[in-house]
Amino acid sequence: MITLKGSRITSMQFINEEDVALLLAGSDDGLIRLYRKFDQPEVELVSAWRGLSDILPGSRGSGLHCKWQQSNGYLFVGGDSRVIKVWDAEEELCVQEMPTRSVSQVTGVSVDPSGIMLLVGFIDGSVKLYDRRLPPTECMIANFSESQSRVLQVAYVGYQHQEFLMGTANGDVMLWDIRQRARTLKIDAGITDVEINGLSIHEHGLLVGCGSNTQNIRVLNLMGETVGAIRYNEGFLQRQASPIHSLAFHPRRLVLAVNTATSVSFFKSNAQNFVSSF
């Protein structure tokens, strides 16, 4: 179990998933931490550096959000800042900065396989598309906006990566066609009468995991059917109630990471596919 003092984990991701997987955690103080042996009693901190140094004064509501690209070792980082940073993770070196051209804070980042096109979700409910090849003043090339609810995650999906999924705090999960600039699907992933705090999209399994401040977690498919459910504080020795802040699916294994204000825990399914209960 991973715990932090004085900061809040706002983003998690499994990286190096085809070899010895590491857990990447971003926190609202702008720090990025890498852990290994995260599924063992003695978790080991591998590395840490400051992913965002220009956090907006008095603003730690969004925190830090990032997307790892395995093929080139780049980490795309945004959050309580007016810029998106691209990091060479091996060198811990920032290789590019792009202005968000938004007054809202970044709440989710996704990148296509080429590492050129970025989708970025914002606290005002919008998703913007950026082209890294263009000058900073011209790199924002499209805006997708239908919801006014905070975007919790955005993810490229589909074989040609011409579609993306976005999930919001009010439970809406929407599929968008990038070329047509049109929404093609909308489902309700909400937990009754409760705002969703954490949401994760499995880009290959096309599943959505969502968690609330009551520590209920649902896993559902794009037909809106619940295929898994977790009560985070069940057990003889119940955990102290703490809202769920973020979720993260492992890209290759049946593992879901769940982060609260006090810890990060992991849930695993013994099923052979994702269409089963956790």
TrEMBL record:
InterPro entries: Raptor (IPR004083), WD40/YVTN_repeat-like_dom_sf (IPR015943), WD40_repeat_dom_sf (IPR036322), WD40_rpt (IPR001680). SMART domains: WD40 (SM00320). GO terms for molecular function: protein-macromolecule adaptor activity. This is Uncharacterized protein. SUPFAM superfamilies: WD40 repeat-like. GO terms for biological process: cellular response to amino acid stimulus; cellular response to starvation; positive regulation of cell growth; regulation of autophagy; TOR signaling. It holds the Pfam family WD40. GO terms for cellular component: cytoplasm; TORC1 complex.
